[in-house]
Amino acid sequence: MLWVLREAVISGKKRLYFLARDGYLMYRAASCYCERFGLPIQCRYLCCSRYSVRIPVFHLDMDEAMDYICRGGIDVTLHKILCRAGLSSEEERQILSLLASDGREREIIPYAELGRVRHRLEQCEPFCDLVRQHSEQAMPALAGYLRQEGLLEDVSAALVDSGWVGSMQKVLNEVLRYLRAEDALPSAGAGVGRRLEGYYWGLYELPGGVSAKDYHCYYFSPSNGLREKVYFSNCLFEGVFSAPHGMTLGYEETEGGFRPVFAETAPDRRAFMEAETDRILYYIGTRADRIRETVGQKAPGTDMKAYLSHMDQEKNHRTVYRLFKLFMAEPTRQEAEVFGRLQFSDDVLEESGQQIAAQLSQRELRDNYPVSKALRLLGIRKGHVKESAWYEGSAVRGGRHVGRHLRRYAGYKYLLYQRKNRMRSRREDG
What is the pLDDT of residue 188? Predict the structure, then answer.
């Protein structure tokens, strides 16, 4: 957050929107720093999710909508795909009947088969009609909420989020461009038409059709931070740094304006996050006071904006890397058990979550080795690869051949990110 605030001050940002839920603790921390340091930045918490923002825009570009609905993930099923489209239970039964699913809607779909599933859905006219219908119905409430939160105001603003792909920034900019056209406001370039930039913990890649200069990364970026990516778990990051409330399902209009509708969250999960929030905010408050006192003693009268501008970010980065490598890539048995039991889902509605460090057999752990996994993902070797949101935690919980599993998985991630780098370089050169 100190890095984000420094970048915001240098670039003249007046408002930061922290995206729910990964941005919740970031928002609380940044608000504390801004108050203690007297920074001229307004922090706001934007209640949104991939589900609540994407469904309203599906009808604007059905081809892109199908890209999202039929994307890969952990244990993707036809049921999950139809949930991503926003279908009700009755509508799902209707479409399953048309597709003749034969009760296999909860069977895991191999990655190589997702293209075939997409083709079948694109040819199913009732499915496409339902997607458009739900999307058009959801847009007014989303538009009302975004207007209410000031995203169409003439203020220099940016988004703050954990990251990974940065697609929410692209989608929100598309929604705002659509709303400006409806309101006959200026297009991107100046004043209320300026594009939202984004500050991220890390990005593995950028969505298509965006400008890289609008995406700012702290820990790693698409072209940098190979070792940081290898010894990092984005799923574990999301599991620990989150909010006590459930995901945003949509928005509803009330007498006082628009408000987000949240999904239910399990009591034990809520209790964990409330306790986590108390601990982190205590640390942040203590750290803020210590920084202010140190600066005052060393250089009386120094402006806190000046302190942020000259902060040793490289030193902080190295410290974070060492800590995260130990915690995420080489956890102790106790860490793997405590944090590995947290519930996690990488899908939109989180209705069928699993433990972050799933219990995997020795064979299932070996199936995640580079060659074995690649052959199954490409459809060359039959069978499904059972994945874990935090493989390293699963390997430690497995209790046998831990070092070998961790080395092989690190090798797999090195190969994966090096391949992504080569493919990106070819696209840029071509």
Answer: 47
Pairing verdict, β 215-220 and 248-254: unpaired
Q: Please report the pLDDT score of residue 111 as a whole number.
A: 82
Tens-place pLDDT, residues 18-75: 999 999 999 999 999 999 998 999 999 999 999 999 999 999 999 999 999 999 887 8
Under 8 Å between Cβ of 156 and 194: yes
Q: How far apart are CA 203 and CA 220, in angstroms?
A: 6
Tokens at 282, concatenated: 């205590």
Nearest-angstrom CA–CA distance, 1 and 378: 40
On whether the CB atoms of residues 367 and 376 are closer than 8 A, the answer is yes
pLDDT digits (tens, 9 = 90+) for 184-214: 765 544 444 578 999 999 999 999 899 999 9
Report percent pLDDT > 70 for the chain: 92
Integer Cα distance of 316 and 249 in angstroms = 36
Residue 84, strand partner residues: none
Instruction: Give residue 110's pLDDT band: very low, low, confident or very high (50, 70, 90).
Output: confident
Q: Do the Cβ atoms of 16 and 31 come closer than 8 Å?
A: no
* Peptide bond just before 408 cis, omega within 30 deg: no
Q: What is the DSSP letter of 112?
A: G
In this structure, are strands 42-46 and 15-19 parallel, antiparallel, or unpaired? parallel
Here the tokens at position 212 are 């890289």
DSSP bridge pairs for 257: 254
Q: Closest Cα partner for 357 from 338, 372, 370?
A: 338
Instruction: Report how far Cα 262 is from the mean position of its chain's Cα atoms.
Output: 17
DSSP string, 340-371: HTSEE--SSS-TT-EESS----HHHHHTTSHH
pLDDT recorded at residue 194: 73
Residue 408: alpha-carbon gap to chain centroid = 26
d(CA 59, CA 135): 6
CB of 4 closer than 8 Å to CB of 199 = yes
β-sheet bridge partners, residue 398 = none
- With beta carbons less than 8 A apart as the criterion, state whether 23 and 160 touch: yes
* C-beta atoms surrounding 371 within 10 Å: 11
What pLDDT was estimated at residue 257?
94
CA distance 341 to 5: 33
Cis bond before residue 6 (omega within 30° of 0): no
Q: What are the backbone angles phi and psi of residue 203, rounded to the nearest 5°? A: -130, 130
Of 420, 367, 395, 385, which is closest to residue 76 (Cα–Cα)? Answer: 385
> How far apart (Å, rounded) are the C-alpha atoms in residues 35 and 27?
12
